[in-house]
Specification:
Elements: H1 3-20, E1 33-39, E2 52-58, E3 64-69, E4 76-84, E5 87-92, E6 99-107, E7 113-119, E8 128-132, E9 137-140, E10 148-154, E11 160-165, E12 169-174, E13 177-180, E14 189-195, E15 201-206, H2 211-214, E16 216-220, E17 225-227, E18 238-242, E19 248-257, E20 260-268, E21 273-277, E22 284-291, E23 294-300, E24 307-312, E25 315-318, E26 330-336, E27 342-346, E28 352-357, H3 373-381, E29 384-385, E30 397-398, H4 400-408
Antiparallel strand pairs: 1-28, 2-3, 3-4, 4-5, 6-7, 7-8, 8-9, 10-11, 11-12, 12-13, 14-15, 15-16, 16-17, 18-19, 19-20, 20-21, 22-23, 23-24, 24-25, 26-27, 27-28, 29-30
Length: 421
């Protein structure tokens, strides 16, 4: 392109800036991610090959906890220690003899892992909890009259939460003692799903018989309780995770018509419960985790494969649109850490994927490190519906909103990257 042509397009950009300067509702560019690690299970031997991995919890170092299983056999708890640059060490968590079911659900920043296990001849008809410190595993047994204990989350102080049963009753394990939270809560049944380093616990409480439509979220420090009503416009509320500021995320049931119901992801910002909705065409959406006002989870319809989602700044994104995983569908985003890393499940792959946010320049359609006339040219060339690098807001069409993003960031350059290819 000649210097004269570049000058003419630059003048055109100035004119268009005046014409379309009112398009301030375009928002900003969506977040972008890259796959920085793939977590695969150990070799099960012939003829089974690699074990299937289910990822679940992640700490602020990018370490991941979950479980793996071969085609035959039981679930084994594991922890994957992130060593950076896509590498990591996969460790099966040691358990007592005759353990034939074991799942890890959470890992704190010191590397402690908690979860549940079923141990033959333990004297308990249900599962027991465990706490793994990187070397040894402590078993946490349910107090009488309960027959089982499922540990779901832990914090820096090694508080552990989950549920006892039957019937399902939320508990808090603190200083070596299992505390039944049921008497603090309204309803016959309850479960605790998350706890933060300040000792706050979240979950749901409700009544047996119709718990799906009678459950409500709660937040407690183990002494006082805040109970929430249904999400505005919904029938229920449930808290699945809590951040260090006491904000929580979960989901709620919404009635769409006579005998028609869906679930919407839910976020409590410390003041209001916010309906995050669901991705288009999906009727189930649940949030699993949150950090720094970003929420992650999954959305799906019926028995179809789901999609991992990420919600921030009022917008829900399909994570599959924000990262290149080849032919792999990310079906669920399980956890997010303080660096913005997200761990996801790959649909029917038996693999876990760690995603890291990319530092990219909004409006830079050709990704050459500067927003300039070449980006403007790409937008004009690809104007209209369809997939394109010029679709900067990923809404399926190149239009005035994408043009506005180029003009809003005109002349900006990416730090540490020289303009030009």
């Amino acid at each position: 392109m000649s210097e004269t042509q570049c000058h003419h397009l630059y003048v055109l950009a100035i004119v268009l800036a005046g014409l379309f300067g009112s398009f301030t509702n375009a928002g900003d560019c969506p977040p972008r991610y890259e796959v920085t690690a793939i977590i695969e299970g150990p070799d099960c031997g012939e003829p089974w090959g690699k074990a299937n991995v289910t990822v679940w919890g992640m700490n602020d170092h990018g370490d991941v906890a979950g479980w793996f299983s071969c085609t035959v056999g039981y679930d084994h708890a594991f922890v994957w220690y992130n060593e950076g640059e896509g590498s990591g060490t996969f460790v099966e968590i040691p358990m007592p003899p005759k353990t034939y079911y074991c799942r890890a659900y959470d890992i704190n920043n010191d590397g402690y892992v908690t979860g549940e296990a079923i141990i033959a001849d333990s004297g308990y008809q249900g599962s027991v909890g465990f706490l793994y410190d990187g070397q040894d595993t402590e078993v946490i047994v349910p107090p009488a009259p309960y027959l089982g204990l499922r540990a779901r989350a832990l914090n820096a102080q090694l508080d552990i939460v989950g549920e006892l049963g039957p019937p399902d009753t939320a508990f808090l394990y603190r200083n070596g003692v299992v505390h039944d939270l049921g008497p603090l809560l309204t309803g016959e049944a309850s479960e605790a799903y998350g706890c933060n380093d300040a000792g706050l616990v979240v979950g749901w409480a409700g009544w047996l018989g119709s718990p799906y439509f009678l459950e409500h979220a709660f937040l407690t420090d183990g002494h006082t309780v805040t109970e929430f009503g249904p999400m505005p416009g919904g029938l229920t509320s449930r808290a699945q995770a809590v951040d260090d500021k006491g904000r929580w995320a979960g989901f709620a049931i919404v009635q769409d018509g006579p005998d028609e119901y869906s679930s919407h992801a839910l976020y409590w910002d410390g003041v209001n419960m916010i309906d995050l909705g669901t991705l288009p065409g999906r009727d189930k959406c649940k949030a699993w985790d949150l950090c720094n006002e970003t929420v992650v989870g999954y959305t799906m319809t019926g028995g179809q494969a789901g999609e991992a989602f990420l919600w921030e700044d009022g917008v829900m994104w399909d994570l599959n649109d924000l990262v290149d995983t080849g032919d792999v569908l990310l079906s669920s985003a399980r956890a997010i850490d303080s660096l913005g890393q997200v761990v996801c499940q790959g649909h029917q792959t038996g693999l876990g994927f760690v995603l890291s946010p990319l530092d990219y320049l909004c409006g830079d359609a050709d990704e050459d490190g500067v927003v300039d006339v070449l980006d403007l040219l790409l937008v004009l060339r690809h104007w209209g519906p369809g997939e394109s690098c010029a679709d900067l807001n990923l809404d399926g069409i190149v239009d005035a909103d994408d043009l506005s993003l180029v003009l809003d960031h005109w002349g900006q350059t990416q730090t540490g990257r020289a303009p030009g290819r």
